[in-house]
Write a structure and sequence with these properties.
Elements (H helix, E strand, L loop, with lengths): L1 E3 L9 H11 L11 E2 L14 H19 L5
Helix pairs in contact: 1-2
């Protein structure tokens, strides 16, 4: 699900995202779920006021949250 907003630079916490996954897991098996940003970082022609560094931090948050929920990723 698109639990990580791309509309503003403020980062969600891994704890908050994990709680959202706990709620979603009531309706689908946790292994059937995935994590992704809400939508693209430029969902309007004008784009969003999210810096490149904030975009990178949000993508790092995707990885950190996935590792917290499903364990480490094999490279």
């Amino acid at each position: 699900p698109g639990f990580i907003t791309t509309k503003k630079g403020e980062l969600e916490t891994v704890d908050d995202l994990s709680k959202r996954f706990d709620e979603a897991a009531k309706f689908a098996d946790i292994d059937q779920l995935g994590i992704a940003p809400q939508c693209g970082f430029a969902s309007t022609e004008e784009g969003n006021l999210v810096s490149e560094d904030e975009q990178k931090a949000k993508l790092e948050l995707v990885v950190e949250t996935a590792e917290a929920i499903w364990g480490g990723v094999d490279a």
